[in-house]
Amino acid sequence: MSEEAALSLAPALAPQLAVPRAAVPRADWQVESREVPADLAALADVRVAVREVLDGWQAHEVADDVVLVASELVANAVQHGCRPGEVVEPPTVHVGVCRGRARILLFVTDPSPSAPLRGRRDPMGVAGRGLDIVTALSTACGWTPGRRDGRGKTVWATFRFRPLRATPST
């Protein structure tokens, strides 16, 4: 899936994005999304919610990768996209997952218009590797500016998977 195609899915998940609704794909895409508080304490709930959605879609083969990327993107959004004084209080983050025939699109929208930046990697440090993890685990990833008023952005990642076929019951 190209970056352009992945971005065209975003309006179905976050209507405030500045992407025309005409770009939304076929109706056979399934969408789950929610607002979460911009608080690192919400990460556990995000991981559980994303895993439950993926389990319901039988996307088991990519579930670990998608959950880890969701955790990285939400942590980045909370730490860098919801800085006090830059956003309206209380800040929230919008997390969404959608499923196509053999694709998963994960997205996180935050209130900051600033582009995601790769952190400085200290060989002995524990920070600065999140976007590298996202790039390594996803099929494609990127970001798009948010609403027409120039506020916010959406960071997204796509994943390929082979859906399980239903087995006939005997």
UniProtKB/TrEMBL annotation:
GO terms for molecular function: ATP binding. This is ATP-binding protein. The keyword Transport does not apply. Residues 36-158 form the Histidine kinase/HSP90-like ATPase domain. It comes from the Bacteria. InterPro entries: Anti-sigma-factor_SerPK (IPR050267), HATPase_C_sf (IPR036890), HATPase_dom (IPR003594). The keyword Kinase applies. It comes from Spongisporangium articulatum. Keywords: ATP-binding, Kinase, Nucleotide-binding, Serine/threonine-protein kinase, Transferase.
